[in-house]
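Course assignment 3, question 2. Fill in each field.
Student: A.L.
Task: Predict the tertiary structure for the chain below.
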Amino acid sequence: MRELRARWGVLAAGIDADTPADRDRSVDALRAVAILGVVLGHWLVTALTTADGGLSTTSPLAHMPWLAPVSWVFQTLAVFFLVGGHVAAKGYASARARGCSYRTWVGQRLGRLFRPVAAVLVLWAVVGAGMLVGGVELDTVRTLLRLVLSPLWFLLVFAALTAATPLVARLGPVWPLAVVAGVDVWRFGFGGPEWAGWVNVGAGWLVPYALGAAWASGSFGGRRSPALLLGAGAAATAALVLWGGYPASMVGVPGAAVSNLNPPTLAAVAFGLAQCGLALLVREPLARAMRRPTAWAKVALVNLSAMTVFLWHQTAMMAVTSLGLLVSADLPGLHTVPGSPGWIAVRLLWLPVFAAALTLCWAAFRTYEQGARPRRRPDRAAPASDTARERRVPLARSSGKGVAHV
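Answer field:
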């Protein structure tokens, strides 16, 4: 154990030393928090049960509505879009300053997004076909594939916003917020068609993305604007839930008449504004925390594999659930209906098992993500001591400027 700690200390020190001095580590920390929030949220509020014979999805939020505050903690997509808009806007400005064309810049960024997706699609195409041939019920296969593919909508929206970054930087967050409000008034106030809500998939996530672009241009330099954003967003969310008829849960609940997330509603966007305000307020404490080499190394490594973690966390949960059937079809917290506080307590015990399965997925598929990033050639004039250090700490170079900016 002491030897492992020593090795980790050496690795962390190398990553810290190789990180450019002007890098804003708080941005990477916010991204890591957002990714881990999504993963833990899915693992806690998504349950695969055998109550109907095969595997079917349900949620503890459907059986215990008082758990809605859990979704306030783990629904962190707005922070991810905030960071994404910030990084993309700064990256595009830097690319233009270097003379890089828009086509080259956007091609590189979208390549980083979609190359890891191919591995997921290929594997699950084979697995799905194999299950059908092996006699697994169609509904079970459909349930599993839906869970695997559901995160991909997020990537499609993120890719579209990334491609529109030059326009977003000029647009600002007010116009898409107005679109979201208008669509909700039409849907819920005047009986508009349900399909109109899907306009908010783009407009709703454009709001935090545009906030990130504004942040990159120098907005939110002090604490006043983020504090106003937090206060106004929280007040608006509370008003919409208490008096506007919006659900308290910020994620979808099976069987609910209205979902705040699918598609995004004005309540979800207001909640996202509050999250963005809080994220901007904690930048300085996060930056101070990231000065510790061990803390920064953990964040850097999460960012290196952000896409892998995001794409494979549902597969990890489903793999554990499916393998558990070999032991029993009624394992508490895994196959049972999430209808009591006891289920929550047992579910927490399964989280380390899910994490272990995700680690295996990461080991198997992380190369698809890392291979999507452009490799940097070492400076031929670099001193021998620097080259030797890179050989001793192979992740240092990639965890500096090469941290995944997805």
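Instructor remarks: Residues 32 and 268 are 21 Å apart (CA to CA). Strands lie at 47-52, 54-58.
Grade: pending
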